[in-house]
Amino acid sequence: MNRISKKVDQQQVKSCLKQKCQDYIDERLLRIKGTISDIQESLTSETKSTAGDKHETGRAMLQLEREKAGAQLAEVEKLQTALHKVETSKKYNTAVLGSIVRCTTANYYISISAGAIICNSETFFAIAPNTPIGKLILGKKQKDVIHFNGKEIVIEEIL
């Protein structure tokens, strides 16, 4: 494979990975907004019952659920901001945000924590830079060795 087509393949894989991370964020966002909508509907439709204390307890529980969903929404917005910073067109010599890091144990995509992603029949683990494995990989170069969970991991390639 010549250098140009290899570069195009790398860009396609990076674009695929970034899109799947975006899909992950979109799905979480949709689910959280649905939860918030359901809670809001429950709050507005609940009528005062003869058991006033029970009514107030129910409203308080719904308010807590709404606050929890609001915190989840803020977290998803942080993920969205982090993903927007990921560059797909660059090739890196050191592991940084937007890098694909091929190791002896697994392939990593440094972006957001989105779990296992399959692109072009290959599995990649989308990890955030602030995760334990992300912190170890960040700033490393090809052939560097890291130790994680009692395993020696060799970085084979950084794209």
Comma- or semicolon-separated keywords:
159 residues, alpha+beta, 19% strand
How would you describe what is shown here?
- This protein is α+β, with helices and mostly antiparallel strands and 159 residues long.
- It folds into 2 domains: 82 residues; 59 residues, no CATH class.
- 52% of the residues lie in helices and 19% in strands.
- It has 3 helices and 6 strands; from the N terminus they run ααββββαββ.
SSE blueprint:
Elements: H1 3-45, H2 52-84, E1 100-103, E2 107-110, E3 115-119, E4 122-127, H3 132-137, E5 145-148, E6 151-158
Parallel strand pairs: 2-4
Antiparallel strand pairs: 1-2, 1-6, 3-4, 5-6
What is the compact description of this entry?
This protein is α+β, with helices and mostly antiparallel strands. It contains 3 helices and 6 strands; from the N terminus they run ααββββαββ.
Number of domains: 2
Helix content: 40-55%
Question: Roughly what fraction of the amino acids lie in strands?
Answer: 15-25%
Stretches where pLDDT is under 50 for at least 5 consecutive residues are: none
Strand order of the largest sheet: 3-4-2-1-6-5
